[in-house]
Write a structure and sequence with these properties.
Layout (H helix, E strand, L loop, with lengths): L3 H13 L16 H21 L4 H23 L10 H10 L5 H19 L7 H22 L11
Helix pairs in contact: 2-3, 2-6, 3-4, 3-5, 3-6, 4-5
Protein name: DUF8154 domain-containing protein
Pfam family, one: DUF8154
InterPro entries: DUF8154
């Protein structure tokens, strides 16, 4: 079996990351690492909302919603706690550190973590398939977490949700 077309595509993909992109995504052009996380969350929420208007795509909406929640919390950690932008945090670290930084209670942090452990990996790594109810609930949760952080820090003007 000839895999040369895969190898060629892999080489092209690797090279694409070595060059400065000719057309960067609008809204993400900031030197502030925290704002970049916030605005990536905005883009994930916009994409999830768009996909939700299509017929299906529930699993992608669920995955995007989980990532948007983590990016929103990561933004808070970078913006409000002095956490370094190069400091690596795992998925579970983000939820735990949000509680440690008093963004929410330890109990709520544990519930976020439990939701992530039991359901994100179930739909992403295992054989479960996302459904409409889960997609809607996760998108609503991700939107609520994002808005809560914007309100908590009074920085709604930095959000680029729905700006295209």
């Amino acid at each position: 079996m000839d895999s040369s077309y895969v190898e060629d595509a892999l080489t092209d993909a690797q090279r694409s990351f070595e060059r400065e992109p000719a057309h960067k995504e609008s809204g993400l052009d900031t030197d502030d690492d925290a704002l970049l996380q916030l605005r990536k969350a905005c883009r994930l929420l916009d994409a999830a909302r768009f996909l939700r208007t299509q017929n299906g795509y529930y699993t992608v909406v669920i995955e995007s919603s989980f990532i948007a929640i983590e990016r929103s919390i990561h933004f808070y950690l970078l913006h409000a706690t002095g956490m370094g932008s190069t400091e690596f945090v795992t998925h579970s670290d983000v939820y735990e550190r949000g509680a440690e930084a008093n963004l929410y209670s330890e109990s709520l942090g544990n519930q976020f973590l439990q939701l992530w452990r039991e359901n994100r990996s179930k739909t992403y790594y295992r054989q479960a398939v996302g459904g409409e109810t889960q997609a809607d609930a996760m998108l609503e949760l991700a939107t609520a977490v994002h808005q809560y952080i914007l309100d908590y820090l009074s920085i709604g003007h930095e959000c680029i949700c729905n700006r295209g």
